[in-house]
Amino acid sequence: MTEAVAEPVSSRLSMWLKGTLALAAGTGFSFGLAPFDWWPSLIGSILLLHWLLRGVSVRHGLVIFYAYGVGFYGVGVSWVYVSIHEFGGASILLAGLLVLLFVLAMALFFLAQGYIYLKFFRQSIWGITLGFSAIWVLREWLLTWFLTGFPWLFAGYGLLDT
């Protein structure tokens, strides 16, 4: 008698729905940080990303990671628009375009994180848990010094009461 292996619920979702959920999860991360400080959304955001990656190919996983990154930075760096438009004197269109390009470029860090995780770490239970976390920390560390650093939107900010 053979036993059927249940496929993950997340693997039955369409890729469009997974991408949309990843985008929403990325936006939810920002609500765990100031000025909202609702830390459960930060944890829920990361857990939803992790759940969406179950049973996906590397290609689809990269789409999920990138969509998450676009949502993550799309909401998290909205203040950059204000800086460019209000204080820099740029037009609304130019400021919006610059912020869009900035968000799309910063989301590439999630693409790199996703590639490393999907290629090397999701094959074992240790890789799924510790590898995912270690690569998350590595991405955050890289952002502190690459191109003079961008030390915003780190998970620790929302999880520490300062």
Task: Note down, in words, how this protein is organized.
The protein is mainly alpha-helical and 162 residues long. The chain has helices at 15-29, 39-52, 58-76, 78-87, 92-106, 108-121, 125-145, 155-159. The N and C termini lie far apart (57 Å). The protein has a domain at 25-75 and 109-159. Keywords: Membrane, Transmembrane, Transmembrane helix. One of its GO terms (molecular function) is N-acyltransferase activity. The chain crosses the membrane at residues 38-56, 63-84, 90-111, 120-137, 143-160. InterPro entries: Apolipo_AcylTrfase, LNT_N.
What are the main properties of this structure?
single chain, mainly alpha, 0% strand, Apolipo_AcylTrfase
Helix and strand arrangement:
Blueprint: H1 15-29, H2 39-52, H3 58-76, H4 78-87, H5 92-106, H6 108-121, H7 125-145, H8 155-159
Helix pairs in contact: 1-2, 1-3, 3-5, 3-6, 4-5, 6-7
Oligomer: single chain
β-strand percent reads: under 5%
Round the Cα radius of gyration to an integer and report it.
17 Å
Terminal-residue CA separation: 57 Å
Mean pLDDT: 91
Structural class: mainly alpha
Provide the low-confidence segments as ranges.
Answer: none
* Count of helix runs: 8
The SSE string, one letter per element, is HHHHHHHH
Question: Can you summarize the main beta sheet?
Answer: none
Helix share of residues? 55-70%
Shape: globular
Give the tally of β-strands.
0
